[in-house]
Amino acid sequence: MNVGVMSREDVILLRRVSVSQGLMLESISEKLLEPGGPHYRCPDKHPSARLSSIAAAGEEKVPFTSGLLIGIGETREERLQALLALRNLHKQYGHIQELIIQNFRAKKGTAMAKAAEPPLVELEWTIAMARLVFGTSMSIQAPPNLTPTMTDGKEWKRLIDAGINDWGGISPVTKDWVNPEAPWPHVNLLAAATADAGRLMVPRLAVYPFYINDLWLDPTVLRRVLAHENSLGYARAEEWSPGLAQDAHSSFLEDKLSNLNGGSTGNHFDSVTNPAKISVGTDGTMHPTRAIGFQGMDVKRILKKIEEAVEPSEVEVTRLFRAMGPEFHDVVKAADELRARVNGEKVSYVVNRNINYTNVCGYKCQFCAFSKGKLSENLRGKPYSLSLDEVSRRAVEAWERGATEVCMQGGIHPEFTGETYMEILKAVKTAAPELHVHAFSPLEVFQGAFTLGVSVEEFLVELKNAGLGSLPGTAAEVLDDEVRRLLCPDKISTDQWLEVMETAHRIGLRTTSTIMFGHLDRSQHWARHLLRLRNLARNTGGFSEFVPLPFVHMQAPIYLKGRARKGPTSRECVLMHSIARLVLHPFITNVQASWVKMGPGGAQALLAAGCNDMGGSLMNESITRAAGASHGEELSPKEMETLILSTGKVPYQRTTLYGDAPAQQRIRAFSARPLT
């Protein structure tokens, strides 16, 4: 909202309906108010009135835009005085998110129609002074449609070299009503000129990343912002979210992912094709936290370090997650080359069945739309618990349809004990003794041990002796307690999850590993998660694979409450798989693409980003579909192999632990009729 001089009451009123507010200081010079001056008889132009409004915004915690209008009769010294006055307010309140350095343009029909316009060198000088006065953390913009002496676009490069990192608002649907004589440049033209200057143009929101929190935004406004931001606090710039049906949105995703094979260096992810405001910078100065500095952290240098088997630091992994444009393609290329060296052109999958034996749960995980309890009766589906007979029936049916594995997990039913999990396991092994049972998350193991009054190790030994083959690495979500305190406050901690996994590995049970990402987490949390997995994998060698699970938002409580994003963007999904391949090597050598979350086409495209596994055929899937996803029931072996073959790779039907699937089961899987 840029509505002129405001009282404190105006600021408070508008804060409820806007993400940010703005008012140009223009100048500190009072001589401009004198007769013959540009501000004569304009009381709202008085510097004290404008500074008062800007201060009121600071007192009310409003992200604010201000700036200078140069070339209207002020001196260079007065411009510096204006910049210092704004800096003093920003030091006091921390609310100025951007500065506009705008050059005067004479307009027909005004008293200054014949006034001289400032040359480009004056605009450059003022931008440079603003950068020196405010340092690296301030966003500084210059309107590209007002740039003086525009001839071949080189003037834009001069503005970037002078210190801007933002182009301000660029609209493909409306003209510049303040400067109608100066049309907006086409976004693609501006992006090309920006690239020629060695920068990448990306879309942002009208509020900068640092201010996207409940300290600076009204709760009703914040929920809208979260729905439109990515993990860096910039604009999502795409309609796709994990779990969406195979429609125009999925086609949009697959079109973008197809560029992975095309060798393009353009910015196909979080692209500039929407009418959002445009931001230029590629360092870490304008992201949700100002505490992390990335100056001098070259992506190619980090990739070279990883190639030389040197473990990257948390800050270096975080930097990789911020890769865009050519840097993005460098990361993906490095990951896929590593995949080729480790796994060759073979892409594996397993024929399995998911059995979610109950959706009743006493925990309050904010991302989960599957579990049912007294506080979640309005979510999709009714509470259920499968009988042991039904669990056995599904296991037998799975074996007869060619499965080599059943994957069993459920809610933490308040009446379940460790003995319940043992009974479920024994029911399956009695009914289908040759089936590999991949079951019980670390949370279920922890809960089962607690209810029996035994240690985690004792309970795991009992399960292993009863026929448990391996553990799923779910309930990890994000292995960082800063996130877990908000996302799943009553769930096991990061250390407890790692303890269960370390114990399982020690007694000879292999496990998978996962991350559920793209909600209220940020890239530094992802970096910590991967490095914690790497450390445990190095010590135990017990992880069979890593499975990124993009957050599906549609029915998730935390999204419905306005406290989460719409899942990761396509760029973030690709980077998660690619960076995992790089960071977890050589201790976890299989990276899986989840067709349930990404859609079959999206998962297929990830095979060019470092993935070598397509997961399971499932037969049934309840958890992701309860969150609103449209995929998940079953992807038959024939469909799976068709997808893999279309990428030029070789399909390989595996077992849970990456052995060869028995020939008889393979025959059954390809001849199985659809489930009724």
Provide an overview of this structure.
The chain has a six-stranded parallel beta sheet. A four-stranded parallel beta sheet has the order 1-2-3-4. The chain has two domains: 202 residues, Alpha-Beta Barrel (TIM Barrel); 330 residues, TIM Barrel (Alpha-Beta Barrel). The chain is of the alpha/beta class and 676 residues long. The two termini are 56 Å apart.
Strand order of the largest sheet: 9-10-11-12-13-14
Describe the main β-sheet briefly: 6 strands, parallel
Q: Please give the alpha-carbon distance between the first and last residues.
A: 56 Å
Helix share of residues? 25-40%
Structurally, the number of domains stands at: 2
**What structural class is derived from the secondary structure elements?**
alpha/beta
Overall 3D form = elongated
| Count of beta strands | 16
Unreliable stretches: 247-252, 261-292
CATH superfamily of the largest domain: Aldolase class I
Q: Give me the number of helical elements.
A: 25
Radius of gyration: 29 Å
CATH second-level architecture of the largest domain: Alpha-Beta Barrel
Mean pLDDT score: 89
Might you state the CATH topology name of the largest domain?
TIM Barrel
Sum this structure up briefly.
This protein is α/β, with parallel strands linked by helices and 676 residues long. Helices cover 39% and strands 11% of the residues. The protein has two domains: 8-209, TIM Barrel (Alpha-Beta Barrel); 342-671, Aldolase class I (TIM Barrel, Alpha-Beta Barrel), CATH 3.20.20.
